Amino acid sequence: MKDLDSLLPGAGVNTRLSHIGYDPSDYHGFVNPPVVRASTVLFPDAKSMETRNKKYTYGTRGTPTTDALAEAINALEGSAGTVLVPSGLAAVTVAILAYVAAGDHVLIVDSVYGPTRHFCDTILKRMGVEVDYFDPSIEAAIETLFKPNTTVVLTEAPGSNTFEMQDIPAIAAAAHKHGAVVLMDNTWATPLYFRPLDFGVDVSIHASTKYPSGHSDILMGTISANAEHWPRLIETHGTLGLCGAPDDSYQILRGLRTMGIRLERHYESALAIATWLEDREEVARVLHPALPSFPSHHIWKRDFKGASGIFSFVLKASDPQKVKPKAHAFLDALSYFGLGYSWGGYESLAVLVNLSDRKIAKAPTEGPVIRLQIGLEDIVDLKADIERGFSAANAV
Ligand SMILES: *Cc1c(COP(=O)(O)O)cnc(C)c1O
Questions:
Q1: Are 215 and 187 within 8 A, CB to CB?
Q2: How much distance in Å is there from the Cα of 322 to the middle of ligand 1?
Q3: Which end of the chain is less packed: N or C, by CB atoms within 10 Å?
Q4: Which residues pair with 349 in a beta bridge?
Q5: Residue 134's beta-bridge partner residues?
Q6: Which residue windows are coiled coil (predicted)?
Q7: Among residues of the chain, what percentage have pLDDT more than 70?
């Protein structure tokens, strides 16, 4: 244990995942941290109460359990500080709220997570913030979209459901030239496969609900900022009264320990199935950034270290009347793939994607877009399940 601090930064990713965030010698040698639940924290005397000169002061400001998770995330992200919030969506909305004010203009990628768009189109607009969406393939041409009042650029790569990559270094460079803060929803890659702050992003956002949880049973979000943008983030988080629960933090930290090996398996299985789907005659296109045929594959290859287990494919349906019936027949014939939202758990999921809210990055036209989360099951069984789906769709 003695040399952990000096050894860990240079260690392999699974070694780091096994040891970051908490040192067992801090708590009697127990391998995992205690779950400290708290509102009240007692002060030893009136003077320390007045000055709040104490590491822990109140439950909303963190406990040893939430700190263990936040420190682990800082180690993975290379961030100055991380705050925990009760869901991935809250991670996005709190991050945006930290850096906007009435009269500002924000640029949001058009392939953004749907509920993020809804927040921007409702609450942000009500607050008097102007919102524009940009083409995920824009690269350095984003420069033309900046206005004197542009304060925030939000990226999400790859984009939700259609998985377009974005040139993050080019977008970040343009944003910084115009004095805007760059936020990135990095849920898909996790910090194991992409570290946003190393590529010019200021604030990295995650739905820990997904791979860090890994078991479809916890909701949580993390927001991690570089040194320049950390004070504003921690201040906003405290002011809004948001906090991640200690029990949930414990579970997310537990999930992180195995996330590296789980992700390797998700990566491998999803890519194998995506490659297999490309050759199926029922499939018009596969939307997976690690496939060489995917339009923005070169960016994934340049910047990312891996791919997670979620991608989409376009089921061929030339007759517009049959788009939905074919998709429903496919989904209803699945047994191992559950029909459900979210992803990142051990089990496979399928969903018919709705892209009607897109403004620029339009939906594919060859048929319905079906998103698959490839879980930890055996590939042969998942392929057989998909075959059953195709048979049912072909019969429509
Ligand atoms: C799921 C998801 C979220 C929201 O996470 P919740 O914990 O379900 O609120 C945010 N961003 C992306 C990209 C997601 O996939």
A1: no
A2: 30
A3: N
A4: 338, 373
A5: 109
A6: none
A7: 99
Q: What fold, for 4-255? A: Aspartate Aminotransferase; domain 2 (3.40.640)
Q: List the chain domain ranges.
A: 4-255, 259-394
Q: Supply the CATH classification number for the domain 259-394.
A: 3.90.1150.10
Q: 175 in ligand 1 pocket by Cβ < 6 Å?
A: no
Q: Which two tokens stand for residue 77?
A: 């992200």
Q: Contact, 326 vs 368, CB < 8 A? A: yes
Alpha-carbon dihedral sign for residues 349, 281, 354, 358: positive
CB 164 within 8 A of CB 158: yes
Taking the centre of ligand 1 as the mean of its atom positions, its distance from the CA of residue 391, in whole angstroms, is: 32
Q: Is 113 in the pocket of ligand 1 (CB under 6 A)?
A: yes
Burial, 100: exposed, middle or buried (Cβ in 10 Å; 0-12, 13-18, 19+)?
buried
Query: Residue 93: CB within 6 Å of ligand 1?
Result: no
Residue 210 confidence (pLDDT) = 98
Q: No. of H helices and E strands in the chain? A: 14, 12
Helix axes 64-77, 246-278, angle to 10 degrees: 30
Q: Is 104 in the pocket of ligand 1 (CB under 6 A)?
A: no
